[in-house]
Design a protein that fits this description.
Order of helices and strands: EEEHEHEEEH
CATH topology: Ubiquitin-like (UB roll)
Radius of gyration: 15 Å
Number of domains: 1
Number of strands: 7
Largest sheet: 5 strands, mixed
Structural class: alpha+beta
Bound molecules: FE2/S2 (inorganic) cluster
Oligomer: single chain
CATH architecture: Roll
Number of helices: 3
CATH superfamily: Beta-grasp domain
Length: about 120
């Protein structure tokens, strides 16, 4: 069975072969300690550095790419947006908080909010 290693909290969780699991969901269910806030790819609080097994993470989608920007190229992922299909090891700063929005994220938010009909 594949294993997710959470090095910062010294925890390991296995899951069935063939499953695709959400990293933050696994961490919450197993009390692994990844900080989080929105669980929807907006705040960046749950950013983790993938130390091994990045090939077992599904490729990032647009929201995660916009939110992480250059950090993505340095091995970071958002746990709430990352699905895992095999052995992976992740670490994080236990004191990390929300990320400031980068210009790409701000542009994306403007695009989303300014093109929707105002129903208020
Ligand atoms: S918890 Fe906010 S981006 Fe993942």
């Amino acid at each position: 069975m594949p294993t997710i290693r959470f090095t910062t909290s010294d925890r390991e969780v296995t899951f069935p072969d063939g499953d695709e699991v959400n990293l933050l969901r696994v961490a919450i269910r197993n009390d692994c300690g990844i900080p989080f806030k929105c669980a929807s790819g907006n705040c960046g609080t749950d950013r983790v550095r993938v130390e091994a097994g990045s090939e077992h993470c599904v490729p990032p989608r647009r929201r995660e790419r916009d939110r992480l920007g250059d950090l993505l190229g340095h091995g970071y992922r958002l746990a709430c947006q990352t699905y895992v299909v095999g052995d992976v090891t992740v670490a994080w700063d236990p004191d990390q908080t929300e990320m400031e929005l980068g210009s790409r994220a701000i542009d994306r938010l403007k695009q989303v909010w300014l093109t929707r009909e105002d129903t208020a």
